[in-house]
Each structure stands twice: as C-alpha cells, then as structure tokens.
C-alpha cells in the first residue's frame, strides 16, 4: 500500500515536469522565471523486474468467501498485470490460487484451481497469450496469514501472479 | 509383507480342537455405549530369555489393543490371585471370577530349535468354565507385534462376532514447521502407533494418502517439482510412480475395492472432473461432466457406485452415482456444506465432513442420505477414514491458531461409530489426512 502511494506521487511529479518542458508552446504572456529543478534519478525497482511487478503493479488479488469472482479492485490489478505483460513480452506468470482454512482439503484444491483460472481467463481476455499464463492451486496449504481470524482468512483467499 | 503372510498362514494351527462352545462372553457393539467387559490378560511366559521378553511385550500389546477398543477393561495384573500353570492345565476359574474377570487370556511363547517363535494362546470363558478359542502361531521372532494384533483380533472376533481391526496400519501426513509453510511428509505406523516411520523426506508437499486393498501401495498427491499430481507409492520397495500423464492437476485419489483402478479428480481450465484409471490397461475414463467442482470420489465396497463431493447445486454437497458416472443424485440435505464422503467397508454408511454455522463435524449417513448422525465436532475436524470392520472412524482435528502463531496443532483421533470412545492417536509430530489400512493380508 505504502509503495503504491509513493508511486502515485512520483507519477504526478513526472507530469508536472512534462508541463514545464512544454513552455515554448505557451503564449507570450507567460514568462519563464526559472529552470525546473534537476530531476532526481529514478529509484526503486526497474520497470521490467519482478520486483516492480510485485510492488508497483501488484501481484495479488483477493476473493470473497467460497467465491472465485474478480471484484473491481482485482480487475484493476489484473489490467495492470496485463499491461505489464504487454510491455515485457519475454516474461510469463504462474498464477497461484489459494484458499482459507475454513474448507476441506480436496475441495479447496479444486477451488484454488478455479480461482487461479479466473485470473488466467481475465488476463487472456486482455490480450495476454494463454501460453504465458500457467495456473497452480495450493488449496489451503500455503496461507500468508496464520491466525484463525476473519481478517487472516480474507487475506488468504487470494490469487498470486508469480513472474517467471 | 507377503512372505510374512505365507509364513503365518501356513503355520496357523488349530491349537485345540474344542467343540464349538456356546459363547457366553459376548459384546453387542451395535448397542451404543457399553460397559467395558473386564478381561484378564495374563503374561505370556517363555522358554528362554528372548521369548520371556517378547512374551511380556506381546501380552501388553494385546491388552492395549483390547483396552483402546473401549469394549474391554483389562484387569490389573497385580490383583491376580492364581499364578497360572501351563497352558495345558485348566485355570482355577474361581480365582478369576473373584476378580470379576469375564474372560481370561492365557498364552505362552517358545523359541524353537530352528530359531522360529511359537506363540499359543487360549481365551477362557471364566464364568462358563470353558475355552472359547485357542490358537498357535509360528513365525520369525521379529513378527511378534503382528502376532499380538492377530491374537487381539481373534479375541475381538470371538466376543463381538465382528472382524477385528488391530492388525492394521495407518498412513498419514506428518506435519511440522510454521503455519505459512508446513513441511508435510507421508508417514506410516501400526494402528496403535508402533513402528512409526516416514515414507517421504518433506522436500515435496504431500497430501491425502490412501491405501490399496492389499495395504501394499498408497496413492497420494505430491507437489513434486511444483506440479501437483497423483502418485503411487509401493511401501515395500519405496518406489514412487506418477499416475498417468495429465495436462492439469490430478488430486483426490482413491483405490477401487478390487485394487485394479484408481479414481481421482483432474482440473482442466479451472474445472475439476472425476476420472478413473484402470491400472492394468492405463486407460482413463471420465465419470463426471459438469462445470462444478467434482471431487473426493470413494467407491462402494461392491464397486458399483461411487460417492463424491460436488458444488453443482450451488454449494458443496454429497452425491452418489453409478460406477459409469450415470444417475448422479444428491444425498446430503440437512444444511451447511458437506465434504469428504467415504463409503464404509460394510457398505451400509457413508462418513463425511460437514461444515455448518462455522463448526466442523464428522458424521455418517446411509447411502440414501437417511439417518444422518454426527459423531465428532470441532473448530476443524476433517477427513474420516474407516477401520476395516466399519466400526471405528479415524479423522484429524486442527486447533484454531492465535495471532502470535501459537496453536493450530493437528492431531489424529479415532471414535467409535456409536459416537463414544474418542481417542487421540499419538504421533511424533502433528498429523493430518489419516488413512486406515485394510486388515494386513
């Protein structure tokens, strides 16, 4: 969350810099009073890196209880993933489908597969070649949050796209 | 395993040809809660140092088997009055009646000249003053535990009229490590926890092992090379074999009652269907065809039907279908979600996991869905497996885990079909996904 907030600020700053550069096209009643301050070298992960994908684009999305539908937030994240994959044609992803612990093991394996496949279908619908998206279900075997609480369970019902 | 069978079976001798005695010492195990029957299990004396030692341990194993069944209460040996004479002399029954023991188990062990061990026992009806059963076994000394379980099964059968379940093993998933990345290994042990050993090293996640009807093989799910697929594991050779070559995840495997087939689910494009592979021809047959999740199939003992789990009706429920996949019909209707159906070896019941209002239950119902009974409950109880005589269920329970990561232990339990006699099956590490073997051939 913090990382994404920072990147949003950076994007605004970049737009501001572009606007200043275009002063020559402005009317004569505008006078340049100073040069823009020097632009800092970009920091953070390179745009084509898995770190950038994980931290800036967002590699995880969340599902409702016993559900595999993609809500608006999930779709927005996946549009970002599809766009990143479009810019990085040599990369592919493995989509992991995960469940909370409040189901039975085998059914959750099926549910995790269904969740991962919902992500794959959406990415493919956005133009990503299906050969670049593999799926794997972990059922309830790999939680990120171990407490037996509603909060943890909602964080464990997730789809994670892992860049290869 | 097989060679032991030959040794044992060819050496089983009818010990005493006693005219069939009308059994007075009886337990009706279908009756619900029964007062455990007091029974005296005497030490089995030996004829040399080795056999004396084995005799002591062997009689304890018999006593523990009978006690854990919940049907017997072994009488404290310190209270024994009579020091038993040889097995060829009738005990003084009045001395055993004084202890209120209804049955007396007497035995002896002999190391023979060829190094083999001969174990003989008699079960006496203390009040009737008669022998109920007598038997001798000859085998290698290292097989003494199996002989103890076989004797306990013979006694259980004589008194209850039902086949026993003590000469069996359990395969399960041993768990260790943090909640976010549990290390899971296949492990196997005798039904009473003895002879525990790990079958896999924990490098690959493994789940849901199940025995073949010969108890020689296990089918299970492994994430070997991060590719979840069904495997076969040969217990004697340790050989692991990928079952088939499928494009998607295969999971939820189970042997057919004749051992010739394995049913499993395969996920393709997010949709799980139930399949069956013939192990002889390696031909695969698809049994379900529905966009729902269809999984956790289990054969009826006659192989003519399967019960399975599906959310085709909108939520996870239990269904029964014919072995060709036809006539699928829902049988669970009492509310909540139902999962993990397992057909009893007797054919009369289907055990399941039910999730209702945030609580998990282990229960049974008839194959037509009638007469549902809930036997155990907890924060998370799952994965029932039947004793081979269909009288006891084993399952696992997981505790809730606190925010600091503590708790969350998983343990194995058994419970009688009556809902009584719940026992923890103690394992070296946490345990889940138990599977009870058939009687060892």
Overall description:
The complex is a heterodimer of chains A (164) and B (441). With 164 residues, chain A is an alpha+beta fold. Chain A has a single domain, classed as 2-Layer Sandwich (60s Ribosomal Protein L30, Chain: A), CATH 3.30.1330.60. Chain A is 45% helix and 13% strand. In chain A, β2, α4 and β3 form a beta-alpha-beta unit. The two termini of chain A are 23 Å apart. Chain B is mainly β and 441 residues long. Chain B folds into two domains: 159 residues, Rossmann fold; 268 residues, TolB, C-terminal domain (Neuraminidase). Chain B is 12% helix and 41% strand. Chain B contains four helices and 30 strands. In chain B, the strands form seven sheets. A six-stranded mixed β-sheet of chain B has the order 1-6-5-4-2-3. In chain B, strands 9-8-7-30 form a four-stranded antiparallel β-sheet, with no helix packed on it. A four-stranded antiparallel β-sheet of chain B has the order 10-11-12-13, with no helix packed on it. In chain B, β4 and β5 form a beta hairpin. The longest helix of chain B is centred in the first third of the chain and has 20 residues. The N terminus of chain B is likely disordered. At the A-B interface, α4 and β3 of A face β22 and β26 of B.
Topology:
The complex is a heterodimer of chains A (about 160) and B (about 450).
Chain A: H1 2-21, H2 50-58, E1 60-62, H3 72-87, E2 93-98, H4 105-125, E3 133-139, H5 150-156, E4 158-163
Parallel strand pairs in A: 2-3
Antiparallel strand pairs in A: 1-4, 2-4
Chain B: H1 2-11, E1 13-14, E2 37-41, H2 49-68, E3 72-74, H3 93-97, E4 103-111, E5 117-125, E6 130-139, H4 144-160, E7 169-176, E8 183-190, E9 197-198, E10 206-211, E11 217-222, E12 229-234, E13 240-242, E14 250-255, E15 261-268, E16 271-278, E17 284-286, E18 294-299, E19 305-310, E20 317-322, E21 329-330, E22 337-343, E23 350-356, E24 359-365, E25 373-378, E26 380-386, E27 392-398, E28 410-416, E29 423-425, E30 430-436
Parallel strand pairs in B: 2-3, 2-4
Antiparallel strand pairs in B: 1-6, 4-5, 5-6, 7-8, 7-30, 8-9, 10-11, 11-12, 12-13, 14-15, 15-16, 16-17, 18-19, 19-20, 20-21, 22-23, 23-24, 24-25, 26-27, 27-28, 28-29
Helix pairs in contact in B: 2-4
């Amino acid at each position: 969350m913090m990382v994404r907030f920072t990147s949003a600020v950076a994007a605004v700053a970049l737009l501001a810099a572009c606007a200043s550069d275009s002063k020559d096209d402005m009317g004569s009643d505008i006078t340049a009073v100073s040069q823009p301050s020097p632009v800092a070298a970009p920091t953070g992960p390179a745009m084509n890196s898995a770190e950038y994908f994980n931290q800036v684009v967002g590699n995880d999305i969340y599902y409702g209880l016993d559900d595999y539908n993609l809500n608006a937030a999930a779709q927005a994240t996946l549009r970002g993933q599809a766009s990143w994959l479009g810019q990085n044609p040599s990369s592919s992803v493995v989509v992991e489908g995960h469940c909370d612990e409040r189901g039975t093991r085998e059914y959750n394996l099926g549910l995790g597969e269904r969740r991962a496949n919902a992500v794959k279908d959406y990415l493919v619908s956005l133009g990503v070649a299906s050969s670049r998206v593999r799926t794997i279900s972990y059922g309830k075997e790999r939680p990120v949050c171990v407490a037996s609480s509603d909060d943890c369970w909602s964080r464990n019902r997730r789809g994670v796209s892992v860049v290869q | 395993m097989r060679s032991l069978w030959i040794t044992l079976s060819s050496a089983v001798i009818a010990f005493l040809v006693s005219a069939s005695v009308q059994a007075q010492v009886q337990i009706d195990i279908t009756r619900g809660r029964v007062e455990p029957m007091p029974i005296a299990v005497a030490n089995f004396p030996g004829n040399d140092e080795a056999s004396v030692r084995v005799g002591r341990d062997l009689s304890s194993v018999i006593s523990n088997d009978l006690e854990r069944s919940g049907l017997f209460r072994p009488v404290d040996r310190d209270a024994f009055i009579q020091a038993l004479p040889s097995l060829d002399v009738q005990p003084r029954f009045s001395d055993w009646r004084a202890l209120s023991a209804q049955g007396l188990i007497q035995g002896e062990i002999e190391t023979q000249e060829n190094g083999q061990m001969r174990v003989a026992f008699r079960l006496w009806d203390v009040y009737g003053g008669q022998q109920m059963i007598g038997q001798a076994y000859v085998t290698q000394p290292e097989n003494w535990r199996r002989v103890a379980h076989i004797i306990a099964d013979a006694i259980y059968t004589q008194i209850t009229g039902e086949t026993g379940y003590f000469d069996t093993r359990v395969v399960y998933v041993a768990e260790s490590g943090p909640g976010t990345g549990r290390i899971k290994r296949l492990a196997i042990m005798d039904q009473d926890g003895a002879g525990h050993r790990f079958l896999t090293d924990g490098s690959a996640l493994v789940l849901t092992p199940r025995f073949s009807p010969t108890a020689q093989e296990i089918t299970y799910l492994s994430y070997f090379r991060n590719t979840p697929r069904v495997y076969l594991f040969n217990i004697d050779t340790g050989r692991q074999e990928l079952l088939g070559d499928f494009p998607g995840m295969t999971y939820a495997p189970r042997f057919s009652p004749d051992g010739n087939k394995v049913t499993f689910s395969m996920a393709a494009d997010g949709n799980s269907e139930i399949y069956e592979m013939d192990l002889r021809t390696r031909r695969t047959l698809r049994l379900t065809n529905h966009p729902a999740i269809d999984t956790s199939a289990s054969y009826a003992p006659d192989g003519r039907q399967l019960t399975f789990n599906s959310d085709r009706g909108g939520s996870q429920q239990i269904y029964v279908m014919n072995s060709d996949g036809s006539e699928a019909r829902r049988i669970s209707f009492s509310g909540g979600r139902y999962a993990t159906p397992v057909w009893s070896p007797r054919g009369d019941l289907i055990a399941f996991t039910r999730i209702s209002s945030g609580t998990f239950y282990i229960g049974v119902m008839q194959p037509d869905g009638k007469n549902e009974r809930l036997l155990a409950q907890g924060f998370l109880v799952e994965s029932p497996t039947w004793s081979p005589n269909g009288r006891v269920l084993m399952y696992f329970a997981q505790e809730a885990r606190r925010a600091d990561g503590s708790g969350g232990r998983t343990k194995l339990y058994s419970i009688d079909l009556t809902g009584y006699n719940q026992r923890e099956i103690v394992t070296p590490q946490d345990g889940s996904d138990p599977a009870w073997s058939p009687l060892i051939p």
